[in-house]
TrEMBL record:
Phylogenetic classification of the source organism: Bacteria, Bacillati, Bacillota, Bacilli, Bacillales
Cofactor requirement: Mg(2+)
InterPro entries: NUDIX_hydrolase-like_dom_sf (IPR015797), NUDIX_hydrolase_dom (IPR000086)
Name of the protein in its database record: NUDIX hydrolase
PANTHER family: GDP-MANNOSE MANNOSYL HYDROLASE, MUTT_NUDIX FAMILY PROTEIN
Organism: Ureibacillus sinduriensis BLB-1 = JCM 15800
Domain Nudix hydrolase: 2-142
GO MF annotations, alphabetized: hydrolase activity
Sorted UniProt keywords: Hydrolase
Database matches in SUPFAM superfamilies: Nudix (SSF55811)
Length: 154
């Protein structure tokens, strides 16, 4: 199976992080908006398309904050992710001023039940994937100097 590129949006509005809400056998969990790069798209185009599809919003793509690899066989979901190898490029994004109502877009992510804004001060108490990103996002918003490449984390 080939390595897949993915672009993710870190959208902080005030003191809240915008996230996609999903549910599994363990309860609610959250992921960042974004998804797989299609042939012929650059990562900014991917992210803009994915945000319209998933959260019904146009975004302005800012700086690249983090690069994360996900090698499924190395993590807790290995029984169904063992063949997955994905590289995620996470960009700081802003909602465009004229964006529509935020919510499920025209092509929501599989299993997506909604969109929520999670308080940054409580981010560690949410099941946000990749879970290792919670502290990186908090640190980034407090202007700490962080590495861009985070390695194989979940």
């Amino acid at each position: 199976m080939p390595i897949r590129n993915s672009a993710k949006a870190i959208i902080v509005h005030g003191d809240r992080l915008l996230a996609i809400k999903k549910k599994d056998r363990d309860g609610y969990y959250y992921i960042l908006p974004g998804g797989g790069q299609e042939h012929g798209e650059n990562l900014h185009e991917t992210l803009k398309r994915e945000c319209i599809e998933e959260i019904n919003a146009e975004v302005e793509v800012g700086n690249l904050l983090f690069i994360r690899e996900y090698i499924g066989k190395n993590h807790e979901h290995f029984e169904f992710d063992s063949e997955v190898h994905q590289i995620e490029y996470m960009f700081l994004c802003k909602l465009k001023e004229d964006c529509r109502e935020i919510g499920n877009g025209i092509v929501p992510d599989e299993g997506q039940i909604g969109v929520e804004c999670l308080p940054l001060s409580e981010l560690l108490s949410y099941r946000l994937y990749p879970q290792a990103m919670r502290t990186h996002i908090i640190d980034c918003m407090t202007a700490k100097n962080l590495p861009v490449y985070l390695g194989d984390i979940n």
